[in-house]
Amino acid sequence: MSAKTRGTPAVPMFRRLMVANRGEVAVRIARACDLLGITPVFATSTADRDAGYLRGRETVCIGAARSPQSYLNMQAIVQAARQSECTALHPGWGFLSENPVFAALCEAHGVTFIGPPARAMHLMGKKTPAKAAMRAAGLALIPGSDGILDSAEQAREVADRVGYPVLLKAESGGGGRGMRIARGPDEVASAYADAQAEAIAAFGDGRLYLERLIEGGRHVEIQIMADRYGDVVHLGERDCTVQRNHQKLLEESPSPSLSAEEREKTLAAAVRAAASIGYVGAGTMEFLLDQGTLRFMEMNTRLQVEHSVSEVRSGRDLVVEQIRVAAGHPLSFGQADVVLAGHAIECRINAEDPANNFKPAPGKIVRWHSPTGEGVRVDTHVDSGYEVPPHYDSLLCKVITAGATRDEAIGRMITALGELVCEGVPTTVPLHLQILRSPAFRSNHYDTRAIPGI
């Protein structure tokens, strides 16, 4: 279908939509609903129900402050959607956004889940089936085990074959948990036992697989969007190498370390791979750049925090597109319509104290001011008087800057962060400024082993 036949219909696809998340992403989803003429209904916990970003909005309290009683309470959320006459639900990111059981529960109760089909989510949510599917689609993989390991002895055999150091990883893992490094044969057994014990404690699943540990690589991810009619497009790649404890601090696009040839080849392969598994909606494929080759690691079957970077470069609203696709409409644009311009950078600003080992800093924000200016975008749910609760992720805002060049985008980010005012709680702004001003970051001489400038 050509781009000319695609377009936003005059009548909204859904009349009412449940926003099953909180904070910045809830505001982001609501903004897309407003653009489409849809009434957003916010599912909130008792800790969030009086937050300023909900002022004048329709809300339903789904439970107590702690996530298991509210934002992870599947039955309560679906019941709230039904009782508030919502015919669709957007899970945002985190919480239940990648839970195929929740997606199936929504569908079983007549609520459209804005995300991929439960079967695709289940396939890509387990690491080894996902790797097998991506290998079949032509993506390069990190050398390692062909599937789940049977024992520490098998792990030793695979490690001897692929070469040390190796990484034992939890099949159901995430966030750096259930992972251990073995740098030689004598470390495999203990690494296997430790990774398995942590995986069982964190995920209730002790299955492990093994990969060769690539040190000194770059973390690159590809944004894709697909409809239910087999059309898939990419919106370029993002470099997410700057991380602390496997948590992203800064993202940029395009990746300054990727060759044009490798970029073009992998973007096309990612589109084919998504189509091959019947993927629908927004998704992100994560890769490790290993001596010039992008090797597939995993797929996030949801909207990413850093989707804003791709929106800025492409001029496309990914959340609006998610909702349209979920309503059964074809993509409103084709690959030829995606024009990626300039350079974009995003900094995630958290209520944490960098001087105190990044300890979360809940409390009241006495004064807040978001930066403005050419090429500056701020996504936030915060204003003066906002109380940062102790129960959830500490993200306060995302600052995104764009420029014709990487240097211009960096300069605008430094200026924007200097203008951001947050009085009452400490933030990670000083850390970001230290990174942005460092020679290592400015000259693009860094990798996954260390944070540039730190």
TrEMBL record:
Reaction(s) catalysed (UniProt annotation): N(6)-biotinyl-L-lysyl-[protein] + hydrogencarbonate + ATP = N(6)-carboxybiotinyl-L-lysyl-[protein] + ADP + phosphate + H(+)
MF (Gene Ontology): ATP binding; biotin carboxylase activity; metal ion binding
SUPFAM superfamilies linked to this entry: Glutathione synthetase ATP-binding domain-like (SSF56059), PreATP-grasp domain (SSF52440), Rudiment single hybrid motif (SSF51246)
Keyword ATP-binding: yes
Positions in coiled-coil regions: none
Signal sequence, start to end: none
EC number(s) from the headed UniProt entry: 6.3.4.14
UniProt keyword terms in alphabetical order: ATP-binding, Ligase, Nucleotide-binding
InterPro entries hit by this protein: ACC_Biotin_Carboxylase, ATP-grasp, BC-like_N, Biotin_carboxylation_dom, Biotin_COase_C, CPAse_ATP-bd, PreATP-grasp_dom_sf, Rudment_hybrid_motif
Record PROSITE patterns: ATP_GRASP, BC, CPSASE_2
Residue ranges of domain ATP-grasp in the record: 131-327
Function: This protein is a component of the acetyl coenzyme A carboxylase complex; first, biotin carboxylase catalyzes the carboxylation of the carrier protein and then the transcarboxylase transfers the carboxyl group to form malonyl-CoA.
Protein's name in the database: biotin carboxylase
Organism: Nannocystis exedens
Lineage: Bacteria, Pseudomonadati, Myxococcota, Polyangia, Nannocystales
